[in-house]
Amino acid sequence: MADWSVDTDEAQNRLYIELVGSHDPEMAKESSEAVKAAAERLDHGFEVITDISEFMPGDQEAVKYIEEGKKAVRENGAAAAVRVMGEGSATGQMHFERVGEDEEEYAVAVADTVEQAEKLLDKRAASQ
């Protein structure tokens, strides 16, 4: 089953994205638009946690929307991101990482769980 969610924690200035399953173009467009809207609500320097532990690659049209979502994160001032890889689809993880990888202008780390990702970002914030 394919699904997605986009949430913000404005107190932490953090964007949470979860992508599950294989997204068709319509689902990819919906999630990308939600990412854009959420990124615009956060302050410059926000952090992103993207859970792609159960994500699987979609078709090329869907990839275009994923690229747009990643571009919106970059253009709205993300400072750091953690991708939750877990033990999901290695193909889906590689696919997501490849999309727009040359354009990322923020630090990207990898974690096994969302909780681990939060700890990494909390540690980053405490060291600044």
Question: What attributes does this structure have?
Answer:
128 residues, alpha/beta, Transcription Regulator spoIIAA, 5-stranded mixed β-sheet, 4 helices, 43% helix, 28% strand, globular
Note down, in words, how this protein is organized.
The protein is α/β, with parallel strands linked by helices. It has one domain (3-126): STAS domain (Transcription Regulator spoIIAA, 2-Layer Sandwich), CATH 3.30.750. The protein is built from 4 helices and 5 strands, in the order E-E-H-E-H-E-H-E-H. It has helices at 25-41, 60-75, 90-98, 114-126, and strands spanning 3-9, 14-22, 47-56, 80-84, 107-111. Strands 1-2-3-4-5 form a 5-stranded mixed sheet, sandwiched between helices. Helix 3 (90-98) links the parallel strand 4 (80-84) and strand 5 (107-111). The radius of gyration is 13 Å and the shape is globular. The model has no long low-confidence stretch (mean pLDDT 86).
Topology:
Layout: E1 3-9, E2 14-22, H1 25-41, E3 47-56, H2 60-75, E4 80-84, H3 90-98, E5 107-111, H4 114-126
Parallel strand pairs: 2-3, 3-4, 4-5
Antiparallel strand pairs: 1-2
* Shape, principal axes of CA atoms: globular
Query: For the CA atoms, what is the radius of gyration?
Result: 13 Å
Task: Catalogue the unreliable spans.
Answer: none
Biggest sheet statistics: 5 strands, mixed
Structural class: alpha/beta
Share of residues in strands: 25-35%
DSSP helical segment count: 4
Strand order of the largest sheet: 1-2-3-4-5
Helix content: 40-55%
Order of helices and strands: EEHEHEHEH
Average pLDDT, rounded to a whole number, is: 86
The figure for the number of domains is 1
Which CATH architecture? 2-Layer Sandwich
Number of strands: 5
The CA-CA distance between the termini, in Å, is: 40 Å
Q: Predict the CATH topology.
A: Transcription Regulator spoIIAA
